[in-house]
Design a protein that fits this description.
Elements: E1 2-9, E2 13-20, E3 25-29, H1 34-44, E4 47-52, H2 58-61, H3 64-71, E5 74-77, E6 88-89, E7 95-98, E8 101-107, E9 116-120, E10 126-130, E11 133-134, E12 137-138, H4 146-156, E13 164-167, H5 172-182, H6 187-201, E14 209-210, H7 211-217, H8 226-232, H9 241-254
Helix pairs in contact: 5-6
The chain binds zinc ion.
Length: about 260
């Protein structure tokens, strides 16, 4: 069985660590900082087999050099020369085999142009979404257009309900505060928000979430909901899905 654990880094990043059964060769996703990863590996007597990278931002790649020097892992990531240390450049439609499990690569531009997501099909499937899909929200558009981000989210939204979504940041409570403003009348979201508040009060992660849940609570996956559209029209144009998405994302930026 593949277990996934969060290694907290910086203010609110999670570096996800994957381990098959009790094997001592493990995987990390988006190691922005080498220190907490090395501390974890040393403490558990593990070694690093593979690194997966979703995009070029420093808080996802800053630990690469030190981890590569120390463990010589396989490194899969976007075909972006700005990231040094990627051994296997992967993009839409590619696959990689990690810890005996098949991972599909999806191109999900929007937050950055090089952003990819890793999805391991299974029961449940595991989605490493980086800064594209968060619980209750989506990534800020630093490089891509709203149309690109919308298409990327639509792609992820096609995965099964039980898919576990491992996002790279603990942004859930802030996202749900915005979601409550965007779509005030959503009982499932209110219940989830209370659950997340309890988790955070106990210093527990709110992640992973599931795609099934996100479809009920995440406004960025609910752009065609009539009540959401009513609120959005007070913020900007929302005559079609893309306009509504663009208005929603811009509103979140200034919220
Ligand atoms: Zn980022």
């Amino acid at each position: 069985m593949l277990t996934v654990k969060p290694i907290p880094a910086f203010q609110d990043n999670y570096i996800w660590l994957l381990q098959q059964d009790n094997q001592d060769r493990v995987v990390v996703v988006d190691p922005g900082d080498a220190k907490p990863v090395i501390a974890w590996l040393e403490q558990q007597d593990l070694t690093l087999d593979t690194i997966l990278v979703t995009h070029h931002h420093q808080d996802h790649t800053g630990g690469l050099r030190e981890l590569i020097e120390r463990y010589s892992p396989e490194v899969y990531g976007p075909a972006n020369d700005a990231i040094s240390g990627i051994r296997h450049h992967v993009g839409e439609g590619d696959e990689c085999r990690v810890l005996g499990r098949r991972f599909e690569v999806h191109a999900v531009p929007g937050h950055t142009l090089d952003h990819i997501a890793f999805y391991a099909p299974g029961t449940p499937g595991l989605l490493f979404a980086g800064d594209t899909l968060f619980s209750g929200g989506c990534g800020r558009l630093f490089e891509g257009t709203p149309a690109q981000m919308r298409e990327s989210l639509t792609k992820l939204d096609a995965l099964p309900d039980d898919t576990l979504v491992f996002a790279a940041h603990e942004y859930t409570l802030a996202n749900l505060a915005f979601a409550a403003a965007a779509e005030p009348d959503n009982a499932a979201r209110d219940a989830y928000r209370a659950e997340c508040q309890t988790a955070r009060d106990l210093d527990r992660p709110t992640l992973p979430t599931t795609l099934g849940r996100e479809r009920h609570i995440n406004p960025f996956l609910r752009i065609d909901e009539p009540s959401l559209l009513t609120t959005l029209r007070q913020q900007g144009p929302a005559d079609n899905s893309l306009e509504a998405f663009t208005t929603l994302r811009a509103w979140k930026d200034r919220f």
